[in-house]
Fold this sequence. Notes:
Blueprint (H helix, E strand, L loop, with lengths): L5 H21 L6 H5 L7 E12 L4 E18 L5 E10 L7 E10 L3 E6 L2 E7 L7 E3 L18 E12 L4 E15 L10 E11 L3 E12 L16 E13 L1
Antiparallel strand pairs: 1-2, 1-12, 2-3, 3-4, 4-5, 5-6, 7-8, 8-9, 9-10, 10-11, 11-12
Amino acid sequence: MNKKLLPFLLLAVLFTVTYFACKKADKKPAVDPTNEYYPLQIGKYVIYNVDSTLWDDTLCVVQIRHHQMMYTVADTFTDAQGRLSYRVDVRMRHQTEDEWEPHSVFYVTGTSTTLETIHSGLHFINLQFPIANGTSWKGNAYVNTTDPDLTYFSNWDYTYSNVGGSFNNGVVVYNNTVTVNERDETIGDPDNIPRQPATRNLSKEVYASGIGMIYRQYIHWTYDPGSIQNNDPNNPNRCRKGNGVVMMAVDHN
């Protein structure tokens, strides 16, 4: 080999190695969108102020209760599809000075394309990735809507809005959030058209980056004009049947 060429060859090799090493170092790993809007780490918790509403058409009353709930990511497991999943423990207390008491559990599975939860046997697709304003999907696709009690979940189109914007949940203002509009349906009007059936379905969730769900509003009630209470001429109230909840995140780690 020509000795005069050797320094140039070594310089070329050094340049090539340095160039690709820098390119590799400059390439940042992709952010996992599941962890961004729904962090899944053992010990992660969020505390909510909760307002629950129960419409009782037998007694023709509306009951409203106030309490707190804590969602804590408690453990991992492998689901039936072989996916890493998480158990979330839910605890409840009526007053801030009360001790937390066990309430329920639900399960979360995060993938590269979805964030799914299972509550009381109902399987929801809460988030779909990538997140962008206007993106829509069938969030209740896994719910058995042939069950008469679950028919109202049929054909819900979950849609993103306010991606990256701030959100005031009534207690705290959170930055970098995404709103999931799940359903906003009103059929009939018991107060103005009392002789016709009516239904109200409203469902919405808001997630904040690095925190998880910071707000939830859910309403489902039905109105039967043929019920005994609604046929009583001495009862001026319109008696609905159903439930609702508003959850507002007030603390987290």
